[in-house]
TrEMBL record:
Official protein name in the record: DNA-binding transcriptional activator of the SARP family
Region of interest (Disordered), residue spans: 148-173, 212-334, 619-646
Family: Belongs to the AfsR/DnrI/RedD regulatory family.
Compositional bias of kind Basic and acidic residues: 240-258
Chain ranges of the OmpR/PhoB-type domain: 645-750
DNA-binding region boundaries: 645-750
Annotated organism of origin: Thermomonospora echinospora
Start-end of Pro residues biased regions: 274-284, 634-646
Domain LysM as annotated: residue spans: 175-232
GO BP: phosphorelay signal transduction system; regulation of DNA-templated transcription
Length: 904
């Protein structure tokens, strides 16, 4: 998105117009009043007889009427002049101007706008100014009142962010939402309450709500305009209704045992009332750093950022100072020279998870089976390595690796970034406040550092958390291989302007807008307004440019109030300047010099930037992309009545290896909970995928790609030794090898170890090869009992994730195929199978459509509604909603059921 090149000129013309209006007010109006009516000051005070005589005699010559009109004109002029003078004094002295009541308030706003636009002409953005918590060097401290008028003064007068205090005795029973283009009260009610017919509740609560300047109050429920605000009342039990744009609590994702009591197992499973809030994993900070590797070095800390803005899981329990000091910060260093921290690494993990879930949302199952599904695209190499390093921190702390859905849930609760982590110094993270930050970057390493800052801000830009403004020439230098148009389209938080001057103009315009909103809400700064009205989008605003102009310097002085920061690829004497050399040495000058000198700054190289931005771009599929309509597959003729799935037969083997779900071992029916190392579990899962074995090079390359060949071979031998020792102790046998080395290949001994994955894949292969008809139906029946969980959910290797996704798609294809074959004769059983498929992929809209159709065929309208509502709840975690096709299907099915009931 770009701004027109004439935007700056329009601001100049507005400023000139304001000056002309003030000149007319102060000069032309009094001259005109004097010429027409004379001076308002009488020659002397009238006597009582003169006053009574003038009031008692007829006003035949209209002298009394004209005198009153003259006095009213002079009074109105004096009142307006007084308001302008008060605003100017407030601007110069930094004192708040009290808001006038009633009809006088619009006149006060007019005076304030005239002063603001006139000041804009001189590059000071008058009505924008606010307190600067971190004033840049050589800058006069600024104090700001709630009206948005700045003044020079003591830094001690700067107002800190103040959150409104609300007592528990009188909780708020509503929240505010800003109307967007295309909204109607019906659609808002349907999103907030799940029923559009409740829109009168919103209209009644919003009729008397003050609207932003220039917008009228709500008087007609059929006429609302973008930018207006509406109140969303809570239900009578004070429970906030579910939301789409801001999530306070996120719904649970996995529903392993959600069944109904009654005719349809899905009836309760699709009830959103039974979904409790999710609990995000809270990995602990490890006591020791992980091994430094040649290609990917990870200094292990918890997946948690101390910056306050990194994409991180729920904070771990509070630790002592010594424990925190003993744990080095998390960093990832790639062979290309890219060096990033926890914030960007977690954001990349979330972006890859969002990409996969969005693809699953649109996948139609059961249409191509028994053919193999097409492979999923893999993430770019740099993004995959960063994600792997991030997820490894969970395994190193013996914490469950979060699923894709859990990563998205963690992302929902993150606030707008308020601090920026720039690098590491002396084993500690170096962070600076983002609002009000002015940073100049010079030296050969400056572009890489700017790329790291830009990439991390873009990673946090979704859900209106951050907005990055970059002039097009600067963007072409930082992102030379990236399609900027496609990136800006996919990332609404990226604004590309044609010139640096246009970028400054955008910041000035946005600051004026924020000043007015703060004034209307009576809040001191953006953080306070975010707390008061979370539905109002107020992203942290940052610009990366090449010109440290005076206008930019003024904006940064105001940045702490309006959440604005600036990074300049040039020396910036008025702010903090960093000089970065080829050997990553940093020299700093300015307010943050002491904290930043000697810091190893995070950086991203050019090729890696392209990979990371490509990952961020694919994380959000446009909402207007069509969702496939699920079409039931025609059943095959001639099949007999199906039997219920048979349970797995007990194996006579000594050891059972479970790789569906977390990797775990059992010996003689008892779980092996101790003694098995993490690298041994990884090797067991890898060999389970290779029934015929794998060579040493294949195993070490897949499992430990960042080790040297010698170190990887040693790790392999150690893992095999650990497996044999653990299983011998568990079984009481001393002779078996369990892992066989025959020729050049290692493999699991199939006579001693039974693997659940082998049963599932053998059944899928048999069903695929069986002839269509009764034989294939019989071969498919064991699959619901065999496919119980995803493959190796506690492993983050590329090969594990690729097979996990492949197995899920293959198994669900087979389940849907089985349900389609069963549907004609046994619809209840088909619904149970579809429900299990939906449990394994709770984001596929075509699956929800299939379940809704089958419930409608069974004559259960309430179940159809609950299934649709469940899709609403689950897709809300992806910051989206069901496609119009799914909603239309709901309407059509309910209409058909209603007509059918009326004809009975």
């Amino acid at each position: 998105m770009t701004r027109p090149r004439t935007a700056r000129a329009s601001d100049v013309w507005r400023g000139l117009g304001a000056l002309a209006a003030l000149a007319v007010l102060f000069v032309a109006v009094p001259v005109g009043l004097y010429v027409v009516g004379g001076s308002p000051i009488p020659d002397g005070l009238p006597t009582w007889s003169q006053v009574s005589g003038a009031l008692m005699r007829p006003d035949t010559d209209h002298s009394l009427f004209l005198g009153v009109i003259r006095l009213m004109g002079w009074a109105a002029w004096l009142f307006l002049v007084g308001l302008v003078a008060a605003e100017v004094v407030g601007y110069l002295a930094g004192r708040p101007v009290p808001r006038l009541p009633g009809l006088a308030r619009p006149v006060q706003y007019l005076a304030r706008d005239l002063v603001a636009m006139a000041a804009l002409l001189f590059g000071t953005t008058a009505s924008l100014t606010g307190p600067s918590a971190t004033p840049v060097a050589h800058a006069v401290p600024i104090t700001v009142d709630q009206t948005g008028i700045p003044s020079a003064g003591s830094a001690q007068e700067s107002a800190a962010p103040v959150a409104p205090t609300t007592g528990e005795e009188s909780p708020r029973r509503w929240r505010t939402r800003v109307v967007k283009r295309g909204d109607t009260l019906w659609s808002i009610a349907r999103r907030e309450y799940g029923a559009g017919r409740l829109y009168p509740r919103i209209f009644r609560a919003s009729e008397n709500l003050d609207q932003p300047q220039g917008l009228s109050k709500l008087t007609d429920p059929d006429r609302i305009h973008p930018g207006q605000r509406v109140r969303i009342p809570y239900p009578v039990d004070d429970t906030p209704p579910p939301r789409r744009d801001v999530q306070r609590t996120t719904p649970r994702i996995d529903h392993p045992q959600e069944r109904t009591t009654g005719a349809t197992p899905t009836d309760q499973a699709t009830s959103p009332d039974a979904i409790p809030p999710a609990q995000s994993p809270s990995p602990q900070r490890p006591d020791r750093p992980s091994t430094t590797r040649p290609s990917t070095s990870v200094a292990s800390t918890p997946p948690q950022s101390s910056t306050g803005h990194g994409h991180a899981p729920t904070p771990a329990p509070r630790q002592t100072t010594s424990e925190r000091n003993n744990a080095p910060p998390f960093t990832v260093t790639l062979p290309t020279g890219t060096h990033v921290g926890i914030g960007l690494a977690t954001a990349i993990s979330i972006a890859i998870a969002a990409t996969r879930l969005q693809r699953r949302r649109r996948r139609t199952y059961g249409t191509t089976w028994p053919d193999q599904p097409a492979p999923n695209p893999t993430p770019p190499a740099a993004a995959a390595k960063v994600r792997k390093a991030h997820l490894d921190t969970y395994a190193e702390q013996d914490q469950p690796i979060p699923t894709d859905a859990e990563l998205i849930e963690q992302d929902l609760a993150l606030p707008a970034p308020d601090r920026l982590t720039l690098g590491i110094r002396n084993g500690q993270e170096v962070t600076v406040p983002l609002p009000g930050l002015g940073l100049g970057l010079t030296g050969t390493g400056a572009p890489d550092v700017a790329r790291a800052i830009a990439t991390e801000l873009l990673a946090t830009s979704h859900r209106d958390r951050a907005e990055l403004v970059i002039p097009e020439p600067v963007a072409q230098v930082l992102f030379p291989k990236t399609d900027l148009t496609a990136l800006a389209t996919a990332k609404p938080g990226l604004i590309i302007t044609p010139t640096p001057a246009a970028a400054i103009t955008h910041l000035e315009t946005e600051t004026i807008h924020r000043a007015r909103l703060l004034d209307n809400a009576d809040q001191p700064d953006v953080p306070a307004l975010r707390t008061t009205d979370p539905s109002e989008p107020f992203p942290s605003l940052a610009v990366i440019t090449t010109e440290p102009s005076q206008a930019l310097h003024t904006l940064i002085q105001l940045g702490s109030r309006y959440a604005i920061a600036a990074i300049v690829l040039a020396p910036w004497p008025a702010a903090t300047t960093l000089h970065i050399t080829d050997d990553d040495t940093t020299h700093a000058q300015g307010p943050h010099a002491d904290a930043l000198t000697g810091t190893r700054l995070f950086k991203v190289t050019g090729p890696d930037t392209h990979d990371l931005l490509q990952t961020l771009r694919t994380a959000h599929i446009p909402d207007d992309e069509p969702v496939p309509i699920s079409t039931p597959r025609a059943p095959e003729p001639g099949h007999p009545e199906p039997a219920p799935p048979n349970p797995l037969q007990a194996s006579e083997r000594l050891v059972k290896l479970h790789v569906l779900g977390p990797v775990r071992l059992e010996a003689a029916g008892n779980p092996i909970d101790t003694g098995l190392r993490r690298n041994a579990r990884e090797l067991l899962a890898y060999l389970a995928l290779h029934l015929n074995g794998a060579t040493r090079e294949q195993a070490t390359t897949a499992l430990w790609p960042d080790h040297t060949p010698k170190a990887a071979t040693t790790t392999l031998h150690t893992a095999i030794n650990n497996i044999r020792k653990t299983l011998r102790q568990a079984t009481g046998l001393r002779e078996p090898m369990f892992v066989i080395h025959a020729g050049t290949r290692y493999r699991l001994d199939p006579h001693l170890i039974d693997v659940d994955l082998w049963h599932l894949e053998a059944t899928l292969t048999q069903a695929r090869q069986a002839p269509a008809g009764p034989a294939r139906l019989k071969a498919l029946q064991p699959i619901p009992a065999l496919y119980t969980a995803d493959f190796a959910t506690d492993l983050a290797h590329d090969w594990a994730e690729a097979h996990r996704e492949h197995l899920r798609r293959t198994a669900i294809d087979a389940l849907i195929y089985l349900a389609n074959l069963t549907q004609a004769d046994h619809p209840d059983q088909a619904l149970t199978i579809m429900e299990q498929a939906l449990k394994h992929d709770p984001y596929s809209e075509p699956l929800y459509q299939s379940v809704m159709r089958l419930q409608a065929d069974l004559g259960r309208p309430d179940a159809v509604r609950r299934t649709y509502q469940l899709s609403v709840t689950r897709l809300a975690t992806l910051d989206t909603e069901p496609a119009p096709e799914t909603y239309q299907l709901l309407v059509d099915l309910l209409r058909h059921l209603s007509l059918h009931d009326s004809q009975k």
